[in-house]
Amino acid sequence: MSRLDPSLLAGLPPFMGMDQPALEHILEGAKPLRQPKNAHVFRQGEEAHSFYLLLDGYVRVVKLAPDGEQVIVRFIASGELLGIAKAIGRDSYPANAVAAADCVLLAWPSHLWESIVSAHPGFATNTYAMLGERLLETQDKVVELATERVEQRVANAVLKLANQSGRKTEEGTLIDFPISRQDISEMTGTTLHTVSRLLSGWEHAGWVKSSRQKVTLMEGHKLVMVASGQAGRKS
DNA sequence: ACATTAATACCAG
DNA sequence: CTGGTATTAATGT
């Protein structure tokens, strides 16, 4: 068993403002874990035996509707916690978590949650702030789904992804993990057909560039226009 | 070279 | 305009 370096955690949002001994203490209970692309980190309904910190990669959180329909709730980027069912008083996971790219994570057994939180008040406030952020995000998304048209929603989704995980290239901003039209449709409540049509439309206009599992954003401001409903109206 | 899976084209409601 | 099926294109083995 190799020793884990506390500098892995230093500077990450959940551990902001914590000193070296505290980080070492938290790391004692963690074991590293590596998940290949498309592997499940945990499944909806499963007993929440562990909680996780994503060190590298991306995982998508997918909610399964009773009829088998899938909805992508959010993407988790590196440095974020996931599977913290215990923090909201649950003992089963509320959704599936799937590696969107090859991932490396740290896993803690869930029973350590209580002791870590009570031993480290800074960690507690950080994670509750994070939960609050996520709550606001999902509220915004509800409003979006209820009030905006499809083109606005997918424009928003693309912008969000580019913003959250964009990598600069000569072409523009590349979303640096594999993303299919199906994925985008599951984020925005449409079908892959509509997403495909919109994306190729924008590609002809020169606003984005897309190929299999890849989307690069070239003219972000144009998409912002679409997202705000100021463009693309047709009759 | 083949099988698998994503993206687009095509067609129907 | 949306949703389903077929065809084509890309990717992994």
Automatic annotation (TrEMBL):
Residues 14-117 form the Cyclic nucleotide-binding domain. Keywords: DNA-binding, Transcription, Transcription regulation. Residues 148-221 form the HTH crp-type domain. It comes from the Bacteria. Pfam families: cNMP_binding (PF00027), HTH_Crp_2 (PF13545). This is Cyclic nucleotide-binding domain-containing protein. It comes from Hoeflea alexandrii.
